Amino acid sequence: MSHTAHIRSHRKPRRSASTIAMRAGVAGGVLSTLAVAGASGSANAAEPVTQTLELPTLTADLAAQIAQSADVTQQAAASYELQAERDAAAAQAAKKAEADLAEAKKKAAEDKRKAAEAARQAAAERASRSAERATLSASVDTGSSDGSGSSVGSSSSSSATGSAAAVVSFVQSQVGDAYVSGGTGPNSWDCSGLVQAAFKQVNIDLPRVSQAQSTAGTQVGLDNLQPGDILYWGGAGSAYHVGVYVGDGMFVGAQNSSTGVVKASLSYDPPSGAVRVL
User: Fold this and answer.
1) 278 vs 271: CA distance, rounded Å
2) Half-sphere exposure of residue 82, counting CA atoms within 13 Å on the CB side?
């Protein structure tokens, strides 16, 4: 017996032709299936995938809510805009008020300064009037000369009587009253207003203005004056000032705003002429 007769052979048994053919067919089918699947996958990958979303249908209530929300948003925006305009207007008004206040303070300070200046000037004028009246009083006490040794109007120094006395008494009682342009009494006068009022005491109506009063009677010379004669300054018919002769070389007249109504010597302010009404 051979020593190798019982040793199993390690060679693989040969496959039969039919087995090989069957396995080849199976493999081919598998490959074909894979090829078809791959081709199908490639084709599907090349085409875009479209996904359809179904949107909810808007109902009437939902549409109304959206519209209402839009209105609310618009109203809120309008409200914010209006508030912004109001804030801007308030800021502008505050700025103007501040400027107006500064201007008012400035004007008040200026008015205060002017008032103080006016008070100072008024005090100075009062002092000046007092000084002038003192000077006039001294002139009345001592008398004044015309330079020739005799007083102007000394030839008519007789005391007034009758209507003339009433006129003289009236004008002398107004001495110290204020002078006011256009004044007709009872406590303030201009020159022609005083003369007119004096002659009303004896029921004589004189014209209102100096120009007319300077021609209201008979012209008389200044060296032949009598109490009650009307004195005038300027031309007859164009006089700018009038007064009343009261005797003893003196006259009474509403002179100006500084002196008021005064009694003074003729030489203090020599007149241009005179007329006699009484």
Assistant:
1) 19
2) 6
